[in-house]
Amino acid sequence: MTTTNSDLPHPDEAEITLDAVLFALSDPARLEIVAQLAEGPLEMARCHLGDPEVPKSTKSHLMKVLREAGVIRNVAQGRGRLLSLRRDELDRRFPGLIGAVLAAQAGPGTG
Amino acid sequence: MTTTNSDLPHPDEAEITLDAVLFALSDPARLEIVAQLAEGPLEMARCHLGDPEVPKSTKSHLMKVLREAGVIRNVAQGRGRLLSLRRDELDRRFPGLIGAVLAAQAGPGTG
DNA sequence: CCAATGGTTCGAAGATTGTGGAACCTTATA
DNA sequence: TATAAGGTTCCACAATCTTCGAACCATTGG
User: Fold this and answer.
1) Lowest mean per-residue pLDDT among A64-68, B22-26, B47-51
2) What is the 8-class DSSP label of residue A74?
3) Which residues, in sequence order, are bridge partners of residue A77?
């Protein structure tokens, strides 16, 4: 099999709330993950955080918060997981939001 | 005197962080306040929340979180306080962010 | 079948936030 | 000066979030 079962719950596009999305993005580690996924889907094992010492349970939890907020998708692939940003859906629901957040996080300098 | 002392601390524009702003906006009550202030400065006593029963200490705390994140300004005026959105500064620092958030909160319908 | 890889889930402890009463401060008004 | 209006601050308590080890689950490869 190429695709598998063992699926995690994801909110429908219509169920995604602004509050949950903003909260999910209000953490440096989670924002960093989102920035990486903005460049394309990534296997979880290839998604590195600032601190490389973070336990897998913690990393998994970060993904859970993002997933339950509707920010990312997390599907089984082989023995690992493929992560992706739900960009199209987020853009439809909250136009410009993700773009502004990513731009802000990319250049937080003095100007 | 028209202006008074008794000033509360506000972060400089350069000190405003994305994380803190997103967190401040990730709460329905605070977002509602921001939406009201987006239409112009408002005396705190004239700024009403969904629940009219909320104690003043709680209301004051909501304002504190927004102020310390750099989202709003809170200055003494007469015996009350004048609240205002730091729109220009936020727009310079995080272009498009506040606009996207306000638009999202204005129309969270099914589309 | 067995072991290894890659992640999720559970549970407990610690840290952060939210809530609201009481006390206090400032300004306006009588 | 007294009194009231409008808010902030302090404090304790409740609720939520974070962190991470341990146990467990699924897939791949011997």
Assistant:
1) B47-51
2) E
3) A80
User: Residue B32 corresponds to which tokens in the numbers above?
Assistant: 């509602």
Residue with tokens 């199209």: A88
* Entry pTM: 0.94
Rounded CA gap, A91 and B86, in Å? 25
Residue B52 DSSP class: T
Name the pLDDT band for A50 (thresholds 50, 70, 90).
confident
Contact yes or no for A83/A44 (Cβ under 8 A): yes
pLDDT score for B109: 62
CA dist A65 to A26, A57, A78, Å? 11, 13, 23
Domains of chain A: 13-105 (1.10.10.10)
Q: Is B45 on the interface with A (CB under 8 A)?
A: no
pLDDT of residue A111: 46
Q: What is the pLDDT of residue B50?
A: 86
Cα of A12 to nearest chain B Cα, Å:
11
Statement: the CB of B80 is under 7 Å from strand C: no
Q: How far, in Å, CA of A49 to CA of A66, rounded?
A: 14
Question: For chain C, which bases have at least one atom within 7 A of a protein Cβ?
Answer: 4-11, 17-23, 25-28
Q: Say how far apart CA A105 and CA B45 lie, in whole Å.
A: 35
- Structure confidence by residue, pLDDT tens digits, B29-62: 999 999 999 999 999 999 999 888 899 999 999 9
Residue position matching structure tokens 């405003």: B16
Query: CA A26, CA A30: separation in Å to the nearest integer?
Result: 8
